[in-house]
Structure formats: structure tokens, C-alpha cells
């Protein structure tokens, strides 16, 4: 059964704990500030991460969720490095979708350097579609539900976005949520355990690149910081054309 208290406005799917914060942290913080209920469903516990531990990563994810003001956080417990697209894995996704009945789902990009991100995208997009099929029984008395809109966020590889969300007002909160992952991203006070290497994302230059990308996409829409999305199954309908294009550019 799904109850009103389970209901979300926006549900974010991610392959690993920290992916949502890294790629849509500003969008989440902005939505929460606007009064929307946002949840995150992580596919794995990130157990293949080169730094930190699974327990530490879970604590970091809980702290990031608190900073962002997430309404709920789920973990599918699928194997890191081998996210399967099986009927069982789809059912696990479907159960969360039917329980939370989100209007909008934010999902990983179709193409990425990291195979887990592509695998999560494949699994989740298939399950989002199937979640609307009345003949698929997911148990717990859960009724069919398919989000009205699905948006792919950007990870390693750039694409030409359909839209960019202005996250300027939420930028500090968004960076604070990212810094909660002390084992993953650069933190001068974190002491790496023996054998923990510096990685692509723990290198200090990585956080600078996160800011640079947000500045670059923000600039394209006339704001300081922006997060890009692809709307793949367009077109989407507009009832309030002026309201939809309510952002104003100082320089046109
Ligand atoms: Zn990831």
C-alpha cells in the first residue's frame, strides 16, 4: 500500500551513494527549498569504492540527506559493479516507484564513462515504464504508477541538455552535501587508510571541475550555477508559456 506520507514529488535514482549529490545536489536543494518532497533511491551501497567503507559511506549518505533535506532515501542493495537488469531488480525499483508515486523521476544518463551509471540507467528506465503496467504485480497491494516525466541528469560525459535548472540560491547547501562524503571527495582533514589511493573524484581538481561545469551551464541560461538535464521522450506539454520561460537573462 502507498500512503500520503510515502508520496514524493521528485524521486532521484542513482547507481552509487554520492551520485545524486554530485550530479543533482543543487536541483534537490532547490526543490526542497521550494517546498517539494524529494527522495533518493541508490541502487548499490558503493562497496567497490576505492576509499572508505560501506558503513562509512552509509553514514556519509545519511549526513548528505540531512543537509539536502531529503524526505526519504532508499537503497536497493544491488551489487556494485554488476547492477543487473533482471525481472527481480526491476521489481525492486517498481516497488519504490509505486510506493512513492513521484510526478518526476531523475535518472542517470544513457551514456557514461562509468559502466554502473549506464547499467543503472538501463534498469531504472525499463522499470519506470513497467511500473505503469497493470498486469505487473509487485506485491504489498501497490497500484501501478508511472512518473509523468523522466529527466536524465549529466554524469561524466557532456550532452546537449534540453533544460538547465538554476541552482544558484542552493549552491552552498549543495556543496555542503557533497563535502559530507569525506572519504570520496577531497577533504584535507580526511586521513586515508592504508592502501586507499587518490582517485579521479578525490583529487582536489575534481571539485573545481564540478563548480566549473555548473558555472558553464549556468552561464548559458544567464545565471551563476546550473545543472543540465536531458528530456529524452519529448516533447513535453506547456500550459503556461510565460511561466515556463520565467527566467530572465540580464544579457541577451
Ligand atoms: Zn557513481
Itemize the secondary structure elements and their pairings:
Elements: E1 10-14, H1 19-33, E2 38-44, H2 54-68, E3 72-78, H3 87-100, E4 104-107, H4 115-130, E5 149-153, E6 163-166, H5 171-179, H6 204-220, E7 226-230, H7 241-244
Parallel strand pairs: 1-2, 1-4, 2-3, 4-5
Antiparallel strand pairs: 5-7, 6-7
Secondary-structure content class: alpha/beta
CATH topology title: Rossmann fold
Low-confidence stretches: none
Within CATH, the superfamily carries the name: LmbE-like
The span between the termini is: 50 Å
Helices and strands, in order, run as EHEHEHEHEEHHEH
Question: Which ligands accompany this protein?
Answer: zinc ion
Features of this protein?
single chain, 252 residues, alpha/beta, Rossmann fold, seven-stranded mixed β-sheet, 7 helices, 7 strands, globular, binds zinc ion
What does this structure look like?
The chain has 252 residues and is of the alpha/beta class. It has one domain: LmbE-like (Rossmann fold). Helix content is 36%, strand content 15%. It contains seven helices and seven strands. The protein has a seven-stranded mixed β-sheet. Strand 4, helix 4 and strand 5 form a beta-alpha-beta unit. Helix 2 packs antiparallel against helix 5 and helix 3 crosses helix 4. The longest helix has 17 residues. The radius of gyration is 18 Å and the shape is globular. It starts with 9 loop residues before the first strand and ends in an 8-residue tail after the last helix. It binds zinc ion. Zinc ion binds next to helix 4.
